[in-house]
Amino acid sequence: IQLFRSVRTVNWTMNGAVNATMNADRIERWLVERIASYAELSIEEVDLRIPFERYGLDSRTAASLSGELEEWLGVSIPATLLWDYPTISEAARFLSQQFAQRDTVLARGRD
Fold first, then answer.
1. What is the DSSP letter of 8?
2. Is the dihedral of CA 91, 20, 77, 72 positive or negative?
3. What 3-state class would DSSP assign to 55?
4. Residue 111, CB-side half-sphere exposure with 13 Å CA sphere
5. What would the pLDDT profile of 13-24 be if each residue is shown by its tens digit?
6. Are 53 and 86 in contact (CB under 8 A)?
7. How big is the CA angle at 60 (ends 14 and 3), to the nearest 5 degrees?
8. What would the pLDDT profile of 39-79 be if each residue is shown by its tens digit?
């Protein structure tokens, strides 16, 4: 049982062109499509609550998926993201919260 989750944040300074409309649903859809592709499943067979490892993602595949996610989002994410947040739902929620926090900080800076 994982008692402590490492607290990591997304590095927003990597690319200033981050999409401000990034939300958990959009991230979940992207992850479902990628997991389905990696696991050779239909998207209907991918459950948001099942750990990535149950879909056969080993460390190499998880690193590859993290790199694709990083490229899609346009930001640097922790290499351990998929282990720290081991389901599609958890990873998407974490990332969308990071976007929301970033957007709040940016909005305050414009005031």
1. -
2. positive
3. helix
4. 6
5. 334 344 445 788
6. yes
7. 80
8. 999 999 999 999 999 999 988 888 889 999 989 988 888 88
